[in-house]
C-alpha cells in the first residue's frame, strides 16, 4: 500500500503556513506606536489641573462665606532603599550616594521617555539599572542627604505627579 502523492495538498499546506506566519508577524505592536501612545498619555497626565488646599466654608445660614486656606507640610517619611545601580550609558560617576528616584520601570522605553523629559526641563537625569533589571529614573544625585531632601522638595513643588519620589542609596 503506497501513499498517493498529491502535490496540490502540499502547496495548500505551504500556502496556509505562510499566511499564518504573515498574520502572526503583522499582529505585534510596533515600538514607535507604543512610544507615541505613552508620551501622549504622559502629556495628558501632566495637563490635569492640580487641586489646591483652599476650601470655602459656610458657617451660618446667612450670606457670609468664610474661606480658609489649609497648608500641609510634607511630614511623611521619605522612602529609602539601598541597592547597587549602574548608569545605563556606563557613566557611573554621575551616580552619587543619595539618588532621587522619580520612576521605576521594567521597560527601558518608558524609563528613557521620562528621563528625556526631565533633561529637557534642565534636570541632570540619569537612567540607571539595578541587578534585577529594573530601570530607575534618577532625577538628581547628591553626596549628602540634606541636599537630596531639598532637591526632592523642589522637584515635588515643580512636578505634583512626583509626590512619591524616593531616595535610593547607592551601594
Automatic annotation (TrEMBL):
<dbReference type="InterPro" id="IPR007730">
    <property type="entry name" value="SPOR-like_dom"/>
</dbReference>
<feature type="compositionally biased region" description="Low complexity">
    <location>
        <begin position="49"/>
        <end position="72"/>
    </location>
</feature>
<dbReference type="InterPro" id="IPR052521">
    <property type="entry name" value="Cell_div_SPOR-domain"/>
</dbReference>
<feature type="domain" description="SPOR">
    <location>
        <begin position="92"/>
        <end position="169"/>
    </location>
</feature>
<feature type="region of interest" description="Disordered">
    <location>
        <begin position="47"/>
        <end position="72"/>
    </location>
</feature>
<protein>
    <recommendedName>
        <fullName>SPOR domain-containing protein</fullName>
    </recommendedName>
</protein>
<dbReference type="InterPro" id="IPR036680">
    <property type="entry name" value="SPOR-like_sf"/>
</dbReference>
<dbReference type="GO" id="GO:0042834">
    <property type="term" value="F:peptidoglycan binding"/>
</dbReference>
<dbReference type="Pfam" id="PF05036">
    <property type="entry name" value="SPOR"/>
</dbReference>
Amino acid at each position: 500500500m503506497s501513499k498517493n502523492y498529491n502535490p496540490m495538498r502540499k502547496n495548500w499546506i505551504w500556502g496556509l503556513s505562510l499566511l499564518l506566519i504573515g498574520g502572526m508577524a503583522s499582529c505585534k505592536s510596533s515600538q514607535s506606536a507604543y512610544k507615541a501612545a505613552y508620551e501622549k498619555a504622559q502629556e495628558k497626565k501632566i495637563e490635569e489641573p492640580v487641586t489646591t488646599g483652599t476650601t470655602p466654608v459656610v458657617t451660618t445660614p446667612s450670606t457670609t462665606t468664610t474661606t480658609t486656606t489649609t497648608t500641609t507640610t510634607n511630614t511623611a517619611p521619605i522612602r529609602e532603599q539601598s541597592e547597587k545601580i549602574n548608569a545605563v550609558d556606563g557613566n557611573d560617576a554621575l551616580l552619587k550616594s543619595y539618588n532621587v528616584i522619580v520612576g521605576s520601570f521594567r521597560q527601558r522605553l518608558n524609563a528613557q521617555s521620562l528621563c528625556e523629559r526631565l533633561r529637557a526641563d534642565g534636570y541632570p537625569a540619569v537612567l540607571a539599572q539595578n541587578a534585577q533589571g529594573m530601570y530607575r529614573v534618577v532625577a538628581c544625585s547628591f553626596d549628602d542627604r540634606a541636599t537630596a531632601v531639598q532637591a526632592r522638595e523642589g522637584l515635588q513643588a515643580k512636578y505634583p505627579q512626583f509626590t512619591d519620589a524616593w531616595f535610593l542609596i547607592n551601594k
